[in-house]
């Protein structure tokens, strides 16, 4: 069970008035007063776990973010999905961006075998059963075919666990790679895999708007 400590002692009083001089820790991690909202974008590499810590010594996303920021991931990308992952120190912003009711759009670039047929595209747009009493649904933004493969750009608004992978599996479409290229109005752009950058205040303002 997680505990809250103030100045090295367990605090059981939920009404305790924390001062700026107090050192507060929750579950062993120090919590600082947020004076400024920080949002960082990472181009997550493949085979990296979206977690704050890992007991199996696997590569995690926090390995790519300087510890001075004290950030947590906004949502998650599965181990084999690359691309745009946001981190912030603002709990309210994190809640806003991850709550399903807000329908925050996210765009992905998928490399598949062959080409999606008009019927398959209609099924994806309407919604397709992907198991566990869930339906996967996406908007196909673009599809470019070269030889035996296609690059498909999809926009999701719900973001169920491994939703795109489950959609293609249900359609018996082979998926080679999957990369998130946009989160709300924030684009991955030319940021290289494994690199990060801080978002500007104007970009953070865009994230706060539906």
Written account of the structure:
Helices cover about 15% and strands about 35% of the residues. With about 210 residues, it is α+β, with helices and mostly antiparallel strands. The protein has 3 domains: about 1-35, no CATH class; about 35-105 and about 185-210, 2-Layer Sandwich (Alpha-Beta Plaits); about 105-185, Alpha-L RNA-binding motif (Alpha-Beta Plaits). Strands 5, 6, 7, 8, 11, 12, 13, 14 and 15 form a 9-stranded mixed sheet that branches. A 4-stranded antiparallel sheet has the order 2-1-3-4, with no helix packed on it. It has a two-stranded antiparallel ribbon with strand order 9-10. A hairpin with a 2-residue loop joins strand 9 and strand 10. The radius of gyration is 20 Å and the shape is elongated. The model has no long low-confidence stretch (mean pLDDT about 90).
Question: Can you give me a brief rundown of this structure?
Answer:
This protein is α+β, with helices and mostly antiparallel strands. Helix content is 15%, strand content 34%.
Q: What are the main properties of this structure?
A:
3 domains; single chain; 4-stranded antiparallel β-sheet; alpha+beta; Alpha-Beta Plaits; 15% helix; 210 residues; 4 helices; 9-stranded mixed β-sheet
Classify the secondary structure makeup into a structural class.
alpha+beta
Main beta-sheet annotation:
9 strands, mixed
CATH fold-type name of the largest domain: Alpha-Beta Plaits
The termini sit apart by 36 Å
Number of domains: 3
Shape: elongated
Rg over CA atoms, rounded to whole Å, is 20 Å
Helix content: 10-25%
- Helices, by number, come to 4
Overall pLDDT? 91
Poorly predicted regions: none
Which CATH architecture of the largest domain is right? Answer: 2-Layer Sandwich
Tally the beta strands: 15
| CATH class value of the largest domain | Alpha Beta
| % residues in beta strands | 25-35%
């Amino acid at each position: 069970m997680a505990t809250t400590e103030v100045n090295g002692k367990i605090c059981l009083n939920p009404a305790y008035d924390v001062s700026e001089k107090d050192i507060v820790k929750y579950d062993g991690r120090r919590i600082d007063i947020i004076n400024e909202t920080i949002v960082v974008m990472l181009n997550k590499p493949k085979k990296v776990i979206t977690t704050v810590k890992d007991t199996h010594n696997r590569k995690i996303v926090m390995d790519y973010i300087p510890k001075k920021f004290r950030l947590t991931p906004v949502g998650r990308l599965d181990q084999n999905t690359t691309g745009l992952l946001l981190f912030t120190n603002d709990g309210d912003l994190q809640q806003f961006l991850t709550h399903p009711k807000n329908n925050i759009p996210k765009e992905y670039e998928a490399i598949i075998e062959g080409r999606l047929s008009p019927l398959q595209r209609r099924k994806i747009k309407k919604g397709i059963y992907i198991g566990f009493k869930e339906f996967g649904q996406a908007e196909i933004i673009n599809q470019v075919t070269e030889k035996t493969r296609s690059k498909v750009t999809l926009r999701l608004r719900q973001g169920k666990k491994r939703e795109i992978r489950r959609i293609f599996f249900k359609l018996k479409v082979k998926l080679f790679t999957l990369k998130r290229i946009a989160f709300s109005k924030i684009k991955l752009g030319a940021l290289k895999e494994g690199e990060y950058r801080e978002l500007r205040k104007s970009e953070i303002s865009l994230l706060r708007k539906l």
